[in-house]
Description:
Elements: H1 12-32, E1 35-36, E2 44-45, H2 52-76, H3 82-92, H4 94-99, H5 106-117, H6 127-159, H7 164-187
Helix pairs in contact: 1-2, 1-3, 2-3, 2-7, 3-6, 5-6
Amino acid sequence: MTxxxxxxxxxxxxxxxxxxFVTIVGSAIAYAGQARYDGVLDxxxxxxxxFYRPLLDNMLNTGCLAxxxxxxxxxxxxxxxLADIVPVVLLSRLPLYMLSLFGMNATFNAAIQxxxxxxxxxxxxxxxxxxxxxxxxxxxxxxxxxVVVILRYGFAVACRARTVKHWMLFAGAVLxxxxxxxxxFYVL
Length: 188
């Protein structure tokens, strides 16, 4: 269970270092795979021109999610610290970073180009392209579930969330942070 819940076993400093490392490496992978994180729970493939863009995306998403979870954690338990929430958020994004690896695949890029060039009309990519897109869809759902599970375990350790009410507040905080991050990306 340590893989899913490292927060109960490792110290805060170790989690901070791992979270920062994972974020920097994930941003570099996103740049190489032409991925953008334009929402707390989103990964989109586009043409990323600047190296720093995925890192800025991650900083905005991490900050937004951390603030919402911190506010919720303080409501649940007044002793919740921001220093316990931020590593949870940093490490929870690891599955999304792994999705960026698909952007380095030439077959994937060709399938995406087929979809983009369709302009809303029916398209017929090769069978291998459809299979790859299906694989990516399944991996994307698995990554989204993994993000929520890691956030859940880390949040439980950080603020001692135990009841159904706590988990409803947690879900609301994640959804609100997604909405606010989308609005911020739209404005910026």
